[in-house]
Specification:
Largest sheet: 3 strands, parallel
Order of helices and strands: HEEEHEEHHHEHEH
Number of helices: 7
Oligomer: single chain
Number of strands: 7
Shape: globular
């Protein structure tokens, strides 16, 4: 993943000024605790922080600077007309996020990788329940709340040039909720978020 960039960096004529860092993935076979066997059909993809740090070290050693605009972040997002509606659409009985993180917690816990979903690495497994995991992994709220949360998220993780909104379940009520979420994010949240990031860049 890094050889092509570091090779170009050896020649001043082809040396990049900056390089994007792509999050690497590791494919893990799914484990069935009932039969005590591994399945090769469905695999778990895990992203490791130390992989990204390794990329950054290699690029730094080659004299290439990482640039925030090249970073993309993916996040589960739910924007609703009000905070109360967003809360229900994320944590309610019909919410696709609740189903998704219930499933992911069970799978990752069965293969000893629950730490991937934990809000804190030192959190005991019993505390890392579906509600705690969902609260950490899903940014949700009204357009105003979403804007505040995205600004706080950017302050925490650093600058990024794109937000990839994860879609989970386009069926039933979730389809309507996710469509409305996308519309509110695009029309009411992101324009103001871009203004914020541009004003920070100008400072």
């Amino acid at each position: 993943r890094t050889t092509c960039v570091t090779t170009l960096a050896r020649d001043p004529a082809t040396k990049p000024d900056f390089a994007p860092i792509d999050t690497g993935t590791i494919n893990l076979d799914a484990y069935d605790p009932q039969t005590k066997t591994f399945s090769h059909a469905d695999r778990v993809y895990t992203n490791r922080t130390d992989t990204l740090e390794s990329y950054a070290r290699e690029f730094r050693a080659a004299g290439i600077k990482p640039k925030g605009e090249n970073w993309r972040v993916a996040r589960n997002v739910m924007v609703a007309p009000s905070d109360a509606e967003a809360q229900d659409r994320v944590f309610g009985a019909q919410a696709s996020n609740t189903y998704f993180y219930t499933y992911m917690r069970e799978v990752l816990d069965s293969v000893g990788l629950l730490i991937i979903l934990k809000p804190r690495p030192d959190m005991p497994d019993a505390e890392a329940d579906v509600k705690a995991i969902t609260a950490e992994c899903v940014i949700h709220g009204s357009p105003k709340t979403m804007l505040d949360k995205l600004v706080a998220f950017r302050d925490r993780v650093g600058p990024f040039g794109g937000l990839l909104m994860t879609g989970i379940d386009w069926a039933g009520v979730n389809q309507d909720w996710e469509r409305e979420s996308m519309r509110l994010l695009a029309q009411e949240v992101m324009p103001k978020f871009r203004q914020h990031t541009l004003s920070q860049a100008a400072e």
